[in-house]
Amino acid sequence: DTAVSQTPKYLVTQMGNDKSIKCEQNLGHDTMYWYKQDSKKFLKIMFSYNNKELIINETVPNRFSPKSPDKAHLNLHINSLELGDSAVYFCASTSSPSSYNEQFFGPGTRLTVL
Amino acid sequence: GNSVTQMEGPVTLSEEAFLTINCTYTATGYPSLFWYVQYPGEGLQLLLKATKADDKGSNKGFEATYRKETTSFHLEKGSVQVSDSAVYFCALSSSNDYKLSFGAGTTVTVRA
């Protein structure tokens, strides 16, 4: 059973389009995250939700909007895609927002904007 | 703010060689420290962690010790295998926020 799953795995689209990436976890965790990994492998947090409430909102363009319909899902919608949005996006989850807890990562979604 | 600095790669080794990846950090509060590993084409997975000073994390032959006096958490393995080829990330999470701050990642390639 996949603990943290993301769809799609690959996404190729044109500049200006709107797209969504979906994330689901079956671990019963309360907290979920979105990270962006650039071409140099650098990872940066974007958002975090705890029990469907936004708790971390880093400085990202407001074209990015996360949505958490329930504790097990955290989706990422991106409007007006730009070339610089090309990256691998990782979803992660943890049991609760604590500095001690391990985060479990999904396999990633490779977004390519042409 | 929190930050993690780890040695730049790429690192290329022969099988059974000794591996060290240096990691130092700056943090407020009392951080927990982690090493995550990313195998090709996969997401990150926890390799080991330490939550207080002088703790040693270990897993799969890898070890790292939380050194508060030198603000370091260096990763070591005595004898690497080809299957250890991956990108290794040092990370911290401090007691006053909920997010992981990652180092830049070190790509390790082990040749047979």
The stretches of 5 or more residues of chain A where confidence is low (pLDDT under 50) are: none
**String of helices and strands of chain B:** EEEEEEEEEEEE
SS elements, strand count of chain B: 12
User: How would you sum up the major sheet of chain A?
Assistant: 7 strands, mixed
Shape of chain B: globular
Number of helices of chain B: 0
Percent helix of chain B, as a range, is under 10%
SSE blueprint and pairings:
The complex is a heterodimer of chains A (114) and B (112).
Chain A: E1 4-7, E2 10-13, E3 19-25, E4 31-37, E5 43-50, E6 53-57, E7 64-70, E8 73-78, E9 87-94, E10 104-105, E11 109-113
Chain B: E1 3-6, E2 11-14, E3 19-21, E4 23-26, E5 32-38, E6 44-50, E7 56-59, E8 62-65, E9 75-77, E10 86-93, E11 101-102, E12 106-111
Parallel strand pairs in B: 2-12
Antiparallel strand pairs in B: 1-4, 3-9, 5-6, 5-10, 7-8, 8-9, 10-11, 10-12
Describe this structure in words.
- The complex is a heterodimer of chains A (114) and B (112).
- By secondary structure, chain A is an all-beta fold.
- In chain A, the strands form two sheets. In chain A, strands 2, 4, 5, 6, 9, 10 and 11 form a seven-stranded mixed sheet that branches. A four-stranded antiparallel sheet of chain A has the order 1-3-8-7, with no helix packed on it.
- Chain A is globular.
- Chain A has no helices and eleven strands.
- Chain B is built from no helices and twelve strands.
- In chain B, strand 10 and strand 11 form a beta hairpin.
- Chain B starts with a strand and ends with a strand.
